Fold:
Amino acid sequence: MKNKFNNEKAYYLYLLIRKSEEKIIDLYSTDKIKSPVHLSIGQEAIAVGVSLALKDEDIIFSNYRGHAHYIAREANLDKMWAELYGKSRGTARGKGGSMHLNDWGKKFMPTSAIVSTAIPQAVGYAFALKYKKQNGIVICYHGDGATEEGVFWESLNFASLHELPIIFICENNKYAIYTHQDKRVKNDPIIERANSFGVKSKKIKFGSTEDYYNVTSECINNINNKSEPYLIECVTTRWKDHVGTGDASDLNYRDMREIDFAIEHDDLINLEKQLSSDVIKKIKLQVDRELENAVNFAEASNFPNKEELYDNVYG
Amino acid sequence: MKNKFNNEKAYYLYLLIRKSEEKIIDLYSTDKIKSPVHLSIGQEAIAVGVSLALKDEDIIFSNYRGHAHYIAREANLDKMWAELYGKSRGTARGKGGSMHLNDWGKKFMPTSAIVSTAIPQAVGYAFALKYKKQNGIVICYHGDGATEEGVFWESLNFASLHELPIIFICENNKYAIYTHQDKRVKNDPIIERANSFGVKSKKIKFGSTEDYYNVTSECINNINNKSEPYLIECVTTRWKDHVGTGDASDLNYRDMREIDFAIEHDDLINLEKQLSSDVIKKIKLQVDRELENAVNFAEASNFPNKEELYDNVYG
Amino acid sequence: MNSIVDKKLINYGEAIYEACYQEMEIDKNVFVYGLGVDDPKGHYGTSKDLHKVYGKNRSFDVPLSEDGLTGIGIGAALAGLRPIYVHQRMDFLLLCMNQLVNMAAKIRYISSGEHSVPIVIRAAVGRSWGQGAQHSQSLQSFFMHVPGIKVIAPTTPHDAKGALIASIRDNNPVVFIEHRMLYNNAGYVPSSLYEVPFGKGRILKEGNDITIVGVSYTVEDSLRASELLKGVGVNAEIIDPISLSPIDYELIRKSVSKTGKLLVVDNGWTTCGFSSEIITDVAINCNNVSCERIGFSETPCPTTPSLENIFYPTPQSIAVKANEMCGGDSKWSPPEQPAKEITSFKGPF
Amino acid sequence: MNSIVDKKLINYGEAIYEACYQEMEIDKNVFVYGLGVDDPKGHYGTSKDLHKVYGKNRSFDVPLSEDGLTGIGIGAALAGLRPIYVHQRMDFLLLCMNQLVNMAAKIRYISSGEHSVPIVIRAAVGRSWGQGAQHSQSLQSFFMHVPGIKVIAPTTPHDAKGALIASIRDNNPVVFIEHRMLYNNAGYVPSSLYEVPFGKGRILKEGNDITIVGVSYTVEDSLRASELLKGVGVNAEIIDPISLSPIDYELIRKSVSKTGKLLVVDNGWTTCGFSSEIITDVAINCNNVSCERIGFSETPCPTTPSLENIFYPTPQSIAVKANEMCGGDSKWSPPEQPAKEITSFKGPF
Ligand SMILES: Cc1ncc(C[n+]2csc(CCOP(=O)(O)OP(=O)(O)O)c2C)c(N)n1
Ligand SMILES: Cc1ncc(C[n+]2csc(CCOP(=O)(O)OP(=O)(O)O)c2C)c(N)n1
Ligand SMILES: [Mg+2]
Ligand SMILES: [Mg+2]
Structure:
């Protein structure tokens, strides 16, 4: 049964993601983070709303734009930052970096930097849950561009054929790098296509954190009654550049008012409105402290030593 | 503008395909055809109906089950038979065989033995026609199983995005080798899926040759008015084994009454009914003669000599 | 381990079936899937009726979606299952390269050992009777090239069973290469469960004059060549590497240091192929070894028998080359004796 | 042909742009497509604003569908067009293997010359600054292995322009390998149209002590290594093969018959790699040449700088190896001087 939306926790997670991403922006010029970063700023409501609806047993598949998904899942922030720094106390001892975070303790699976390639794995994991009669559902985050890869449709077909417990969370920020969706597909077809592949789909435009929480909870209830796949298309806005910490406003690849609109409607403001100033203060302090600890943890960690290069090629 | 359906020609082509396939069955035990054959018996009405609606300028992409498509296009029968025999006067001088027929004179493109791999090429050819402002329409034959490959949907997406002049002819014989469609996809979804990918689709169950002629002509008229892709799903029955010349009745992989039903409704009978006995006689003689010539042509041809092995690896 | 066990005379296909059957029996996480695995033919009998024994969820047919189904197997492996994905032809692995190379081979490394991918990819190499350009490719070198993937290509029924068991139990992605022309070869196979380990090759025939290394079906060709070579007094040592990644370099180095001559008979194209890897290792690590390679002709495989026959290495062409390397008469042409499994094959596929 | 022409000092990326621009100008059948080719960055500037010059149908962005779009390019090529398909990373070609190997490489052969496939696949190899396991692969050996495909990997701006022109005009599928760390290297490039032919390599520096063969970026590394080697009196000959399929074996054979030593520096993994092919050819066709190879470490590429730096060959590691082969002191360690294009790179991608 569905629990009440936890506004306080939502605000905390949302803020932690936002501040963490902003911290990356601050530090990026120091070149301490020597790898591409795909920021989630503007898309936090989805990750937070979805994550609040999940149980510990549920499994998360994300992608290279995974910071929000990782933090919203309450995965280890120290290790994430150490990984961004390429340090040996990171989630992959530095071998993965921002594009390949993982935290098995939170069932957050290693992410891929190849678009759409984790989709069938999420389906395969859901297949295994059913095979082993194990509880839990799989959450599979992906972008709008990912739905253009053939493997995406092969995966949906198998998920519907085998009635697997999986929810595809399509974060439709309308762009693949600098290319608008209209240049890649005709008339905004994602949910219609997913439905035709036997995956019940729903679209939410610029939803609030609570909206995403509610629709996810609903799908989970349905799956608990009858195992079958769902897809939630979440129309959202990427505030920053596709990769890196700028906003690419100089490139004129989009109407910047799209972003102004999104910033005005930032759900962080709404979430904050509903909290007392004490609570807000407490949470802000906590977020700052956790983030500071995480950065210090990363700073204080060592780089992996040369011998590690050959570790874990084979198991 | 659409011409009247040519019953006599339809009968001739249909019979030529049927007799040619039956000739293969007769000869197969001699092992003169040293390669896999995927017979079209039972599916002739589609190839004949579609082909009668085409112009010389139109381009055909088929697959390893291509005998009917090739013959219905009135491509060179002698060369086809020489190719089956692996002889140097064959359509590919023996290097292709049954699975890789081609006849550029009839714009019948080389076929592939890898399911679904010619689909994007058909789309690319249609793109080129539009690019060069050239007349013509691309016909792309494929099976039901081919629609399960991701590349199929990538191809449809591109075709609709670029509004290309192409008609996908889906020959749905309900089986991929011995596996029924219901074991591969949920609730018979092909046209619904194609529609969601922006390809206008229509389904015809066990249609007559004239039915396929009419629907193809209709699509061609539409495309001549406005360039965009179409898909016609043709539900049909494969009378023989997936590959080879048997009927696989010993395998019990299907209810053989499906085939009995198809044989009863063989459109060859209906086509014949509408012709005078003289015409029928004349056509039967012609078919037998052409076929005999083709087989003799194959018999009389030589095998390619060793030096040819290295020809045409590069152009 | 399999010292005193009862052995049965069974063929290569039956040996593979037995490995699957027995591993599925002792480990309920093992399952088999792929096009036609549960159809009446059961992929040359290697998976026949397994679904009736172990249930539809442990042996099942699939849609035509090789790319997706590879990823689905990887996902199931990440969840602790041990999938065996069966392909009717190795050519179809070209649809799976992204999942195999970008994902399966990398996941353990990019998670620093937190996860591994115990999946077995079974692929049959096609040959003869007009398989043509797209049903005859043998792409072992692609997978040998990529760190994080293991590759094994057994030749005998004994090794087929033991190598498949080792592959299923291995915690890494394994490409397991079968060959259509080997399925009916018979041999004595222990009824028990046993592993043929990765990284260990085998000397199938000892000899002092020249070392001949084959791979998969060309090991069979090489053995036949060695019979022909006896006729001209050449005593060839025949090595079956079995495991292609990792490779038993030591075994080959030792052999060539004895014979001073190395002929690698590739079951595939030679450029950047298995044969170039073996010769390169010897060139770097051994002194004064004269090396040669033969393999598929550097063309797509033609369908017509007159060209298909000369596309492949044969016992004759191998013997002639080896004899030349041993200083024998280059005009020598041993009797043509086409392999029975090839001449007897009559399709339909 | 380009004997008396005016040359400009431009960089590698600009040279590629110029080749596209000029070929599109003279042949309206040439078009460019791929993810982001018409975006504001235009793939490192190599396709920037071409759509504004030649129209949206001759330079256009695409959906994320690498497999399908490869086949679409092949189909367009069959219809007489000359497509150039641009990939931001070579790793993405793993999604295109079926179309490239099963179709593009085979169509001419299975139609006995009735059809050919004049398509150019441009792919950029990523390196440095945390590209990681999936954005750093250099898979030339896959394509060298397959008959029916040509492969070319120019190193200098001059060769980049000429080789791309030759590739566009070639009637076969060509995999054209670029390297992210080369885009900003400058060189003198003729303004005219000219071809750098397939099958011809180049001696970039003459020497008598050892032959060093690189590929793509490791040619640059090797040149720098040769500078270091001067310090210990080793005079290395540096060969840039440029064309990987076909390869100019003759050039390499001649060089090693002079130097007696061959070091191949692979830009990729060495097992069944480019380096094993070069060494194998020499082992078979030349006498008493001592051979060595180095390349990527046999692991996926790690993201963290501390490991990424040792994953790749460097001028230092090349020089040390070469010096050893020439009997020099194995303890010699030349000054570390990280390549400017690598240290200066700051992302974001
Ligand atoms: C198979 C593949 N093709 C291309 C790329 C390059 N690339 C990286 S992210 C990206 C855009 C993906 O867009 P979308 O799926 O909408 O996700 P978003 O980045 O917007 O979150 C592209 C084209 C890639 N990494 N993998
Ligand atoms: C990519 C690929 N996977 C599997 C095969 C093996 N195979 C050949 S035909 C076939 C069935 C295809 O079914 P369908 O598309 O319905 O065409 P049909 O044979 O029924 O005309 C299969 C699985 C193949 N040739 N290519
Ligand atoms: Mg997007
Ligand atoms: Mg079918």
